[in-house]
Amino acid sequence: MTERNEAHDRVLDLIVDRWSPRSFAENAVPQEDLDVIFEAAGWAPSAFNIQPWRFLYAHRGDGNWERFLSLLIDFNQTWAKDAAVLVFVVSDTLQRKGDGTTSPNHSHSFDAGAAWALAALQATAMGYHVHAMTGVKFDEARRELCIPDDYRLEAAFVIGTRAPKEKLPEQLQQREAPSGRKPVSEFAWAGNFA
Ligand SMILES: Cc1cc2nc3c(=O)[nH]c(=O)nc-3n(C[C@H](O)[C@H](O)[C@H](O)COP(=O)(O)O)c2cc1C
Fold first, then answer.
1. Is this model's pTM higher than 0.85 or not?
2. What is the pLDDT of residues 101-130, one digit of tens each?
3. How far is the CA of 99 from the centre of ligand 1 (A)?
4. Ligand 1 geometric centre to CA of 15 (Å)
5. Which element (helix H / strand E) includes 16?
6. Whose CA is closest to atom 24 on ligand 1?
7. Does domain 13-95+102-164 have CATH number 3.40.109.10?
8. In the Cβ-directed half-sphere of 157, how many Cα atoms lie within 13 Å?
9. Nearest Cα to Cα of residue 130 among 20, 12, 25, 33
10. Pocket test for ligand 1, best of 53, 131, 175 (most atoms within 8 A of CB)
11. What Cα–Cα distance (Å) separates residue 144 from each residue in 64, 154, 181?
12. In the structure, which protein residues have their CB atom closer than 6 angstroms to any atom of ligand 1?
């Protein structure tokens, strides 16, 4: 369980060590740990420091768990059911001013993505694994989670402790490993879009 990707040795270990397994042990994430993970997420930068991210969560076995789990597509339910916490990431699409007026916030999704990434890194540093999903029944989830029209449901993620891959069906066992990445030259250019 110590697979690791090749990366430049100056890229932080924490960044390279984060990856998204599907085999989770059925142990809990204590609320104190979850609160630390969310606080780390909240340290993300955001335009005008609006902090547009919102996190709706359930712990496995609590009163919301089965309802939350049912909002994932069937494939994701098959493995996410063993994770400890399921989180839906929502962003506020508006900048809400003190005088009650609003204007569109261009970067609400970008900022919520930064917050999710910090949550993932904090959880990794605490010995957990995190796996994001957009395999979500978005329309049903919006209704079921009472998300207002001016908020966007971005994605979901689970947090938990990794279990041996043998816990998964055969075809998923083969995918239970860190993925590689494109070389920097394929996505970063000096100057114009290449
Ligand atoms: C926004 C987002 C949506 C994703 N949706 C799913 C999903 O619905 N189901 C799934 O099994 N994995 C999903 N993934 C996991 C990606 O496939 C995974 O992050 C990617 O292959 C890179 O692998 P790594 O996270 O292990 O480095 C998602 C990841 C992100 C960031």
1. yes
2. 999 999 999 999 999 999 999 999 999 999
3. 40
4. 15
5. helix 13-17
6. 19
7. yes
8. 28
9. 20
10. 131
11. 11, 15, 36
12. 19-20, 76, 132-135, 155, 178-179
